[in-house]
Amino acid sequence: MRDHNIDLLRFVGLSLIILAHVTPPLLVLNLRCFDVPLMVFVSGLTCYQKDIRFSWGYLSHRFARLVFPVWIFLTVYFLMIYAAKFVGLDFGLTFKQVYESYLLMDGIGFVWIIRVLLLIAMVTPGLIKINQIIKSNIIFIWLYSIALILYLLIAYYKVGMDVVLVRDWVYYAIGYGFVFLLGIRMKGLKCVDVMLFIAIIVALFIAMGVVGMYSLLGNDSVFFHVNDWKYPPTNIFLLYGLIMAVLGYTIVNIKRRARLNTIVNFIGCNSIWLSMAYSLHIYHCSHGYGMVDEICGSLYGCSRYLLSSVCVGGNYRKKRKV
């Protein structure tokens, strides 16, 4: 049976991503910046008690599921951008943006989330194995905390940050790997374990905040931007994401099983693809073509909704036949 609490958390995560691009006040912008950690945390929740073993078959399957659809999506999108030139619309797309998008780097923006999901898929078997080996929740929490502190120290001193491969791949894999591992373990933690974990992470958050404030004394405009530690995920951004992910999970589970309306359920089930569609809106508006984007976005959204409805309906009918 599908866990609607997870769909609700996905809905919240996507809503926070969208909120970031409607020019919210600075305070709101900082408070909502646990969007991507929440999405990764939810992915970890879905792997609870699963036994996924590392194999080339597994990696090729995940690569095909994650990357191929994005490449198709980008190809259609870039062809539309190219065709728009014939009617006098130039979105300023460069060759560098195109190939970086296919490599899941900066590109047109937003495709980096697929790189995060791909990295998480690569380390999933190892993280599941770690979770299986450490039986005691207390030992898990303390080992997790020690490893997290080491990572934060390494990131604080920017070890290897000048190397693109290390900064954009290794740091992302480790940073979001911590979030994903917590998601895997979360359903097995007792209330007292959760309270201990939150206490440790909050203490680290305060400590890193004090260190950051001291090192950036006289430049508080940098310190209070939590997103400054988002690329790659380090420091108070990562800690804040962990805290809010745990709190969010705890809140939605106060009521055992959430009942979602159709719209919330649809968004929760298709959060990744809806976020990709939303990225087109941001890119177009940034080039001054808001009205064009509203039309294209509406057409795309309708087609996306119809396609997803057909898929969901087909899966539902198959389940009923079984």
Please give a structural write-up.
This protein is 74% helix and 0% strand. It is an all-alpha fold and 322 residues long. Helix 1 crosses helix 12, helix 6 (112-133) crosses helix 8 (164-186) and helix 9 packs antiparallel against helix 11 (235-252). The two termini are 14 Å apart.
Bin the strand percentage. under 5%
Please summarize the sheet with the most strands: none
Number of helices: 14
- Fraction in helix: over 70%
Order of helices and strands: HHHHHHHHHHHHHH
Task: Decide which structural class fits the backbone.
Answer: mainly alpha
The stretches of 5 or more residues where confidence is low (pLDDT under 50) are 289-322
Query: How many discrete domains?
Result: 1
Number of strands: 0
Overall geometry: globular
N-to-C span: 14 Å
Computed CA radius of gyration, to the nearest angstrom = 21 Å
Mean pLDDT: 80
Q: Could you give the topology of this structure?
A:
Layout: H1 4-19, H2 26-31, H3 35-45, H4 56-84, H5 95-102, H6 112-133, H7 137-156, H8 164-186, H9 191-215, H10 220-223, H11 235-252, H12 262-269, H13 271-286, H14 290-321
Helix pairs in contact: 1-3, 1-12, 1-13, 3-8, 3-11, 4-6, 6-8, 7-8, 7-9, 8-11, 9-11, 13-14
What descriptors fit this protein?
mainly alpha; 322 residues; disordered C terminus
Quick summary of this structure?
The chain is mainly alpha-helical and 322 residues long.
